[in-house]
Specification:
The chain is α+β, with helices and mostly antiparallel strands. About 35% of the residues lie in helices and about 25% in strands. It binds adenosine-5'-diphosphate (ADP) and magnesium ion. Magnesium ion binds next to α2.
Length: about 625
């Protein structure tokens, strides 16, 4: 029997580090949460190589007393609770006292901190929790933690790290959510010396702009309402502002980012009648419910929560979003018109000369609802500035919403109908590999052929489409694709995940004849495309490719291209109703001879066979 050992704190910390510090992003999360708990109003995060080489988080919070700094890195050391009753009343993000000792045990760690009432600050350094040194030093009020060489002493964990780029994108997603969830705190986030996001702590709108930009803001309804004790506030995309994956959906429950099925399906279902397949709504919603109706006491790393009454949550959110989208009269009470949208002062204050800036605070006419837009202007030295301009257009909001809705619904209805019509045609496939004799064209749509004892009716459009499709596909498979240079390179803008996805497949796209290269952050420049795609919108093509990246990882992009090829074939094929010349007929006849699976690229049948026996039966020649 082995002896039972009490683990040394060194071993214990490394084991618990495995749970708390999974990846660089978890270190950033723990450090930032400590900064928020310290009452900071300004927090800076800087990472190098996806946080693997270094992570620095600094804040202007209340700091740590010189005499306490050594305790901060001890296991179970926390200033956030002291007695058992405190557990029932936790208002801080951390309270377990696990983060710092865990981080310390797997990195080269430095912490500088100073409280407002002490003159000097202190600096603590340690490598893997050993050789802890504490000294006095000059410092600003607040705390700065630097974590270098994460997992340098735990090679097993180091192996599990992804590429610096992937780790960085995980941290960037976290920073996005953090900024949106804490609009009252200013954040600055720098990765490899590049300023990625900067927010100014002056409200949700400003935070939203710093992540998604002004153009997205304009595409959203800003809603703010309370129903059944549930507060719902934030931005939801207008009907036409749909995304091709779920990466643009954030829910903050009582200030915390969550992934929750009840909430997300309520929103999705409210949108469902406005969305086509593979379209997803955009939203950043903050939902506040009474704390006693939600159980957040799951593991701190888990993002889900449990509601005591799912139905109320679902019903309330569903009804609020539906009303906004329907443009019902209630929507006016839910949507906050632009009058409440603050000018993002901090953005404007950054500009030296603001002579282009026009304010319309409507101080003397507070009741009047102005409609504002932001415009990009340039001052004399060419510095861009954002200008909030009031538009004279003072339409009633209800009318706006209704009109937009109606047009959109009509369009959907039309598209649905077209699809239904297409699907309703369904006949069995037949094989056509014989020598046919052309009889003539009927109804300007069908070609009649006979073959001894059988009569064939060919759909001229479907048949021609198939011929073109096969030719294009052959070119595609045998690398005989023609390439077209674009007059102006197309610049494709994507998000972090999408960018990773494309980068991993650059060679695939290039093999298709697409000259694509990275063009700044999360953007790509496309200079040539395969001729097949010349008639389609490149953005649409990528929207299709990026639909649900996770599932697409398994899906073959070739299938998508064949789809495009089919569309192209359809466009250039002879239409039904076209009168055909003898040459046209010959083209079809020759082309069709080599085709065995006789269906058009959309899956409709090309030909219908009527047998001699069948016709004989019509005329009662046989029974
Ligand atoms: P917890 O957050 O669960 O209390 P941590 O290990 O994350 O545990 O931190 C330990 C303690 O160190 C905290 O309780 C707090 O007193 C102190 N501390 C850590 N980071 C900061 C910071 N940025 N500002 C002020 N105090 C901090
Ligand atoms: Mg903590």
């Amino acid at each position: 029997m082995s002896k039972i050992n009490i683990l040394s704190s060194k071993i214990y910390n490394r084991i618990s580090a495995g749970e708390v510090v999974e990846r660089p992003a978890s270190v950033v999360k723990e450090l930032v949460e400590n900064s928020i708990d310290s009452g900071a109003t300004s927090i800076e995060v800087e990472i190098v190589d996806g946080g693997i080489t270094s992570i620095r988080v600094s804040d202007n919070g209340h700091g740590i007393e010189n005499s306490e700094i050594k305790s901060a890195i001890l296991p179970h050391a926390t200033s956030k609770i002291s007695k058992i009753e405190d557990l029932d009343n936790i208002s801080s993000l951390g309270f377990r006292g696990e983060a710092l000792p865990s981080i310390v045990s797997v990195s080269k760690f430095k912490m500088v901190s100073k409280t407002a009432d002490s003159e000097l600050g202190s600096i603590l350094t340690t490598e893997g929790g050993e050789n802890v040194e504490v000294n006095s030093c000059g410092a600003l009020d607040g705390t700065e933690v630097t974590v270098n060489n994460l997992f340098y002493n735990t090679p097993a964990r180091e192996k599990f790290l992804k590429t610096p780029r992937s780790e960085e994108s995980e941290i960037s997603s976290y920073m996005q959510r953090l900024i949106l969830a804490n609009p009252e705190i200013s954040f600055k986030y720098v990765a490899n010396d590049k300023l990625m996001y900067q927010s100014f702590g002056d409200g949700l709108e400003s935070a939203f702009i710093s992540i998604y930009g002004l153009s997205t803001l304009k595409e959203c309804f800003f809603i703010d309402t309370e129903k059944n004790g549930i507060k719902i506030k934030g931005y939801i995309g207008k009907h036409h502002f749909v995304k091709s994956n779920r990466g643009y959906q954030s829910i903050f429950l009582n200030g915390r980012y969550v992934i929750n099925n009840t909430v997300s399906s309520a929103i999705s279902n409210a949108y469902s009648s406005y969305l086509m397949k593979r379209q997803y709504p955009f939203y950043v919603l903050s939902i506040t419910v009474p704390t006693e109706t939600v159980d957040v006491n799951v593991h701190p790393n888990k993002l889900d929560v449990r509601f005591s009454n799912n139905q109320i949550i679902y019903g309330t959110i569903y009804s609020v979003i539906s009303k906004v989208l329907e443009g019902s009269s209630d929507a006016v009470n839910i949507i906050v018109e632009n009058k409440n949208l603050e000018t993002p002062n901090s953005l404007i204050n950054n500009i030296d000369s603001i002579h282009n800036y026009v304010t319309h605070n409507n101080i003397d006419t507070p009741k009047k609802q102005g409609i504002y837009e932001y415009e990009m202007c340039f001052n004399d030295s060419g510095t861009p500035s954002l200008t909030k301009v009031e538009k004279l257009n003072n339409k009633e909001p209800e009318i706006d919403i209704f009109a937009e809705n109606k047009a959109y619904l009509e369009k959907l209805e039309r598209e649905k109908k077209e699809r239904q019509e297409e699907n309703s045609i369904c006949q069995t496939e037949i094989k056509l590999d014989k020598n046919l004799t052309y009889v003539g064209q009927a109804l300007n749509t069908f070609l009649l052929f006979e073959d001894g004892e059988d009569l064939y009716l060919l759909d001229q459009h479907a048949a021609h489409e198939r011929i073109i499709f096969d030719k294009l596909k052959e070119g595609f498979i045998f690398d005989k694709l023609e390439i077209q240079s674009l007059l102006l390179p197309y610049v494709l803008e994507v998000n972090e995940n999408e960018s990773d996805f494309i980068i991993e497949r650059l060679s695939f796209f290039r093999n298709l004849g697409m000259d694509i290269e990275e063009f700044g952050r999360n953007s790509f420049k496309i200079s040539t495309i395969p001729l097949i795609l010349s008639e389609i919108n490149i953005q649409k093509f990528f929207d299709l490719v990026l639909i649900d990246i996770n599932s697409l990882k398994k899906l073959d992009i070739k299938d998508l291209l064949f789809d495009k090829i089919a569309q192209k074939a359809c466009k250039s094929a002879i239409k039904s109703g076209d009168k055909l010349s003898k040459e046209d007929t010959n083209v079809i006849l020759e082309g069709i001879k080599n085709n065995f699976g006789l269906k058009c690229p959309h899956g409709r049948p090309i030909a219908v066979k009527i047998s001699r026996t069948e016709i004989d039966k019509w005329f009662k020649r046989i029974v």
